[in-house]
Amino acid sequence: MLASVSLVAVALASGGPALAANNDLQLLNLCDFNGATECPWVTRDSKGFITAPTGPDAEGQARFRSLMSELGVVIAPRLQTPADTLGYAGFQFSAELGVTKINNDRPYWNGVASFPSGGRPSSYLTTVGGFVRKGMWFPLPAFEFGAGALSILGSNMYALQGYAKIALQEGFHGWWLPSFAVRGSASQLLGTDQVDLNVYGLDVLISKAFGLAGTSRIEPFVGWNVLWIDAQSGIIDATPHCDAFADHQGTAALNDPNTTCQASQNGTWNDTLANFTFPQQSVITRYRWSGGFKLKMSVLFLVGEYDFIQAGKSRDSKQPEAVRDGSGSQQSFSFSAGFDF
After folding, report:
1. What are the strands, taking DSSP E only, across 102-178?
2. Which domains, and CATH codes, for the chain?
């Protein structure tokens, strides 16, 4: 168990060189280049000058919304706990492994570094994480909070997470009454300059504890969750093969022999019009159903969980009708183990 926790700590702490990995975001790939060296969203006049600020079309915005929807599900905090809290003196350390299905055959998953040269990401994204949870009596009885971090394998991206849970009914293990709780959670994606992605969740969960031979306890749990995914694009260069400053200094060919800059961008302010962001969209909403169990043996525990996430259907109210979340349904499987005091 200590080895598992150590491996998670190493995975989260190791920085390595700041190079794009296969699963890192590369949102410019949401533009269909069709063999060109710059995105068709750039508009030029007959002399080659960019005539208007670059911006994605409705299809590009819909792809961005769908990609953020599925990636938001990947980093959303999972339940990994029954409805019962740890108790005001309770404390828990855990390591978590999760795999989440993505619809990698759809066009919006072009927006990763592996596309087009390396193909598409795997149909499942894997995350590893470490978490700590603590029960408290303040500000309300039967209160619990937790915090942790997870890393998306095959990328430089990771997420910081936190949650707070209150049990509205718990502890009636000798009766037929199940435990009932509500939980609020948040997750923030880090490790990329392509997007500022935050996920907020509200869970309702029910569980029931059963003793096993007087030495252990198993607690099956089910839950329903709504996710709110808020994504804001970073600044993206629509002419990636043009280093305007290096071209102006005469060093572009030395740095990249494939550099191709038009004269209008050669050290002029016109080059800034090639930079763009995806317009800020309204919050994406997804719905998730969860089921699992917690097996506790003395201070050791094991949790297994399955999640089904309904397909995305939300529309961006700030943009044209075509800017809809076209993400498909998703599934995730997760396991955690640790010490429960």
Report:
1. 124-136, 143-152, 158-169
2. 2-235+277-340 (2.40.128)
